[in-house]
Specification:
By secondary structure, this protein is of the alpha+beta class. 20% of the residues lie in helices and 43% in strands. The chain has one domain: Nucleoside Triphosphate Pyrophosphohydrolase (Alpha-Beta Complex), CATH 3.90.79.10. A hairpin with a 2-residue loop joins strand 1 and strand 2.
């Protein structure tokens, strides 16, 4: 059996009250902020770094929520690991995204998300209710 080439990607589930922070990519799809884990980096370190680079904010990474695997380019499988996160410092800025919004749990269904994010929303946020940070 051929072993899969898996690349780990992280995503931050940041809430402000009852709203989730989502970001629109240049391709028009929405996502939770995050990015690819670099060699020698833990998923938690990656998520903090990506939020600094993409949003100009400092976060505290909390509990692991879920992992979703989707096909990537050139036979690579992307495993997107979703984590609770809290904003510690800064105001999110559109450094790499075209738009940032805070939306309610119910409004998440109104946006076109990347495949992994859509799967996560349907099976974790909408089915089980919202993740709690407390």
């Amino acid at each position: 059996m051929k072993e899969m080439n898996v690349k780990t990607v992280t995503a931050a589930v940041l809430r402000r009250g009852d709203e989730y922070l989502i970001c629109r990519r240049t391709n028009g799809l929405w996502e939770f902020p995050g990015g690819k884990v670099e060699p020698g980096e833990t998923p938690e370190q990656c998520l903090a770094r990506e939020c600094r680079e993409e949003l100009a904010v400092e976060i505290s990474v909390g509990a692991f929520l879920d992992a979703v695997r989707v096909p990537g380019r050139d036979g690579i499988v992307l495993e997107i690991r979703f984590y609770e996160a809290r904003l510690c410092a800064g105001t999110p800025q559109t450094l790499v995204h075209t738009e940032i919004r805070h939306v309610s749990r119910d409004a998440l269904s109104d946006f076109s998300f990347c495949t992994a994010d859509q799967i996560f929303i349907e099976r974790t946020i909408l089915r089980k209710g919202r993740p709690d940070h407390d």
